[in-house]
Every structure is written in C-alpha cells, then in structure tokens.
Design a protein that fits this description.
126 residues; elongated; single chain; 3-stranded antiparallel sheet; COMM domain-containing protein 4 isoform X2; alpha+beta; COMM; 4 helices; 3 strands; 52% helix
C-alpha cells in the first residue's frame, strides 16, 4: 500500500481515509501516513532505480571492414541490454548492414527521438 501511495503521489489525507475504509484502525492508519510522509521520496527513488527495463541500447559501434561489408554499406554492432529472448531478458549483440545513404536519415531520426525524450525528461524533473 505504501509503495503504491508513493508511486502515484497519493496525499497523506487521502491515503489515511482509504486505508481506514479498508478496515485499518485509525492509529495504525496514522502510523502508516507518518511512514509515507517520511519515506515517500525514498520509495519513489527505489522504484525508479529498480524499474524493469528491457531492450536498452548500450552501445553502437562501427565495425565496417573491407571485403566483408557489402559495397556502399556500413556495418554496425548494436549491444542491447535486457533484450527479451524466448521470454527472458538477456544481453545481446546484433550486427547490421545499412546503406551509407540511409545513415544520414537514421542519424537525423535518432537526434529527433533524443530531443523528444529530453523534452519529456525535463518536464518530469520540473
């Protein structure tokens, strides 16, 4: 109950009323509200730190080599953390070939995606 109250930013007053409606005695509800008041920020931070993250791109490396990479292409190595493989998270590495002409468009799209993510990240921190 404390975790969900902290996660969703429930006020102490509302939390107190809700847990009393569930049958918790008034004294116990007050004690839980004190814990929520004292530790809500720490609980939220722990939730953020332990959030289940999948398919997180760890690195991109250019591994283009003459003779092995198709003409007019670049070979990239993508390291992905916690990719779901057969339903289980696993660290993986993928090698992909991409036409050199498409690299500029890919870079532009990735920059746009980064800017959008930064915009949302800045909204959350304000």
């Amino acid at each position: 109950m404390l975790t969900n109250a902290a996660r969703y930013g429930c006020s102490e007053k509302i939390f107190n009323v809700e847990i009393q409606q569930l049958g918790l005695p008034k004294d116990h509800a007050a004690a839980m509200c004190r814990v929520l008041h004292t530790h809500a920020d720490a609980i939220r931070q722990k939730l953020i730190d332990k959030a289940f993250r999948i398919n997180e791109l760890q690195s991109v490396r250019n591994v283009t080599s003459l003779g092995e990479t198709p003409q007019n292409c670049a070979t990239l190595e993508l390291k992905i953390s916690q990719e779901l493989v057969d339903g289980l998270p696993k660290d993986t590495t993928h090698t992909v070939n991409i036409e050199c002409a498409q690299l500029g468009a890919l870079l532009d799209e990735m920059k746009l995606a980064r800017d959008i993510m930064l915009k949302y990240e800045n909204k959350e921190s304000t």
